[in-house]
Design brief:
By secondary structure, the chain is of the alpha+beta class. It has one domain: Alpha-Beta Complex (YbaK protein), CATH 3.90.960.10. It is built from six helices and nine strands, in the order E-H-E-H-E-E-H-E-H-E-H-E-E-H-E. A five-stranded mixed beta sheet has the order 5-3-4-6-9. Strands 1-2-8-7 form a four-stranded antiparallel beta sheet. A hairpin with a 6-residue loop joins strand 7 and strand 8. The longest helix has 12 residues. It comes from Hominisplanchenecus murintestinalis.
């Protein structure tokens, strides 16, 4: 694997991935990129983590029981997820993983490629962004550019202060214990 600081050639790349690079350039958000084999899970990202010098963010796409409220949770990859703990903080009982049809419809993503950057496709703001305090306070966020064969290292500040305001998405800070 090699590190890159710019966009790849569009040959063989999905339009959704190239749209990410277009937006990052438009917003003047620098990034470091690593291309790799399919990495659909946090465990598969360990080698990428080492190369980028960060821990990839765990991205969970969740919904309430009625499938009327949808959430994207960004949390540290090594922290266990406890639905009860999160439910209490956001006032939504019975959280579960949302179906891939909603993931595709709202964010244009496929399973294993879930990323905060997919919110650029959520024009109706159907997905509520939840960020664990530990992620919000970290210097960098590691995420996929809407495809799980590349990973990006972005400054957290750029995501929170440039990217999210531009796409008109707010976020809710949560504090997950992980014990």
């Amino acid at each position: 694997m090699t590190l890159y600081t710019g966009r790849p050639d569009s040959d063989g790349r999905l339009p959704a991935e190239m749209a990410v690079y277009d937006l990052l350039e438009k917003l003047d958000i620098p990034y470091v990129r690593a291309d790799h084999e399919v990495a659909p899970t946090i465990e598969a990202c360990r080698e990428v983590d080492a190369l980028l010098g960060i821990d990839m963010c765990k991205n969970l796409f969740l919904c309430n029981r009625q499938k009327t409220e949808f959430y994207l949770l960004l949390m540290p990859g090594d922290k266990p997820f406890r639905t009860k703990e999160l439910s209490a903080q956001i006032g939504s009982a019975r959280l579960s993983f949302a179906g891939e049809d909603f993931m595709e419809e709202f964010m244009g993503l496929t399973p294993g490629s879930v990323t905060v950057l997919g919110l650029m496709n959520d024009k109706d703001c159907r997905v509520r962004l939840l960020i664990d305090k530990e992620i919000a306070e970290s210097g960098y966020i590691g995420c996929h550019p809407c495809i799980n064969t590349s990973s990006l290292k972005l400054k957290t500040k750029d995501v929170l202060e440039k990217f999210l305001p531009y796409i008109e998405h707010e976020y809710t800070l949560v504090e997950l214990g992980g014990e």
